[in-house]
Specification:
This protein is α+β, with helices and mostly antiparallel strands. Helix content is 20%, strand content 34%.
């Protein structure tokens, strides 16, 4: 009999993001991955070849496969997050090509927020620079479990092993100090294709995987039944028909973990308890369901449950609070200020809230804390304390990226202001990792 983990790993999906300084070759790397893995349609390649010739380039500029905005092509930079979908016989991929400019930090946060792996590019000629450290810090802050250091443009340093070794050692030490649990360094030339999809003939001193080989084999599937089970209710189903006169089901997507028929559960924030009597998935009754399946759960008791409530196992229910302490990235052009009234959206629940305090702003250049800034502006990352009008069942982001994250929204026009991660920042996690050899992030 196949286990749940084996069933999940049969067709795995890897979400990954690229990051790096301007002109490090992120878009070229993504274009090379798509081109050499034969994931580019003929008409797309012809369009890139025509655009490249119009710019006086003999060879096709593979960066144009991802830089789709006119301003991006004209300036030769990446401005917005470009998502691409491709697949190989071994795995399916969703990649986010994120900008490298400092002013687009919020775009990288968006792209990396759902990533299981981050590819951080470094120009072999420049080594680890300020923006490299910034992107490593963001990856650590967002609890991205796997980080790949792609030392690009090795062709411009004569494929020298000492250059790669020095950069890999410096970056690995820095990322490990932030608590990043796994770092893999790969020497590449995205322009020439060395170690991207095919092994390089110029770097016989390197015996590790190519970028694509690592993406295909990095372990991302785990037994989701071992995670904290969380089910945010999205919709209450009551047909009240002759065929189903008493049917009452709670529909939604399982955010984490697994639920079983017969399991004792607690409904939050009310705290009422009941037992799972049935689980309906795709029109059929099942005994067990796990994340990220969309299901309908039926309970033994008629409880007042509505959209935004959370169902969790009674022996593993999260604490309910109205005081949220979190690390946030401010994404709106208008600042976030102390005393500001906002809406807080957590899973399917949206409540009124007020920003009680902004204790500090993080300087990503050197990871120093600027105390009591009073406000956060676009691309700022800082600590906030928010008081909600109603209780929330909020996990720590370190325990669950799905139920530990939230958005702050402008109640006037619905604009997303801030992306938040409840609980401790990466610095606390780094300290814990330094004292625990077995420390890891399990999502």
């Amino acid at each position: 009999m196949t286990t749940t983990a084996e069933q999940l790993s049969a067709t795995t999906l890897l979400r990954f993001a690229t990051a790096g300084s301007v002109d490090d070759g992120k878009s070229t790397l993504v274009g090379r991955l798509l081109h050499d893995s034969k994931s580019v349609l003929t008409d797309q390649l012809e369009a890139v070849e025509n655009a490249s010739r119009s710019r006086g380039q003999e060879a096709p500029d593979l960066a144009l496969l991802t830089d789709g905005l006119r301003a991006e092509r004209e300036q030769g930079i990446t401005i917005d997050v470009a998502y691409r979908y491709f697949a190989t016989p071994r795995r399916r991929f969703i990649l986010a090509d994120t900008p490298g400019h400092v002013q687009y930090t919020r775009n990288m946060v968006t792209g990396a927020s759902t990533a299981e792996l981050a590819v951080v590019l470094v120009d072999a000629r420049n080594g680890v620079v300020e923006q490299t450290r910034r992107h490593a810090a963001v990856a650590a802050l967002l609890r991205v479990p796997h980080v790949v250091l792609a030392v690009n443009k090795m062709d411009l340093v004569d494929y020298a092993e000492p250059v790669f070794a020095a950069i890999a050692e410096e970056f690995t030490a820095y990322a490990a100090s932030l608590g990043v649990p796994e770092i893999t360094a790969i020497p590449i030339s995205a322009l020439a294709g060395d170690n991207v999809v095919e092994p390089s003939a110029h770097m016989d001193w390197y015996g590790g995987p190519t970028v694509l080989e690592h993406l295909e084999t990095v372990p991302v599937s785990h037994d989701l039944t071992a995670c904290h089970a969380r089910f945010p209710v999205q919709y209450v189903i009551r047909p009240q028909t002759a065929e189903h006169p008493d049917y009452r089901g709670y529909a939604g997507q399982i955010a984490a973990g697994a639920f079983r028929v017969g399991e004792a559960v607690t409904v939050l924030p009310s705290g009422r308890t009941s037992t799972v009597t049935a689980i309906d998935a795709l029109g059929e009754s099942v005994d067990v369901a796990w994340a990220p399946q969309s299901v309908t759960i039926r309970l033994a008791d008629d409880i007042d449950i509505s959209r935004g409530d959370l169902i969790a196992p009674s022996d593993d229910a999260p604490a309910v609070t109205q005081d949220v302490e979190a690390t946030v990235c401010h994404v709106a052009d208008q600042p976030l200020t102390v005393g500001q009234r906002v809406l807080l959206k957590h899973t399917t629940r949206t409540v009124k809230a007020i920003v009680k305090d902004i204790p500090s702003r993080l300087t990503l250049d050197d990871l120093s804390q600027h105390p009591a800034p009073g406000r956060l502006v676009a691309n700022d990352i800082g600590r906030v304390v928010v008081r909600t009008a109603e209780p929330l069942a909020l996990d720590a982001y370190a325990d669950s990226r799905r139920t530990g994250s939230f958005l702050l929204i402008d109640p006037a026009d619905g604009t997303t202001l801030t992306a938040g991660m409840a609980g401790a920042s990466f610095a606390v996690v780094a300290e814990a990792a330094a004292t625990d050899d077995d420390a890891e992030w399990n999502f």
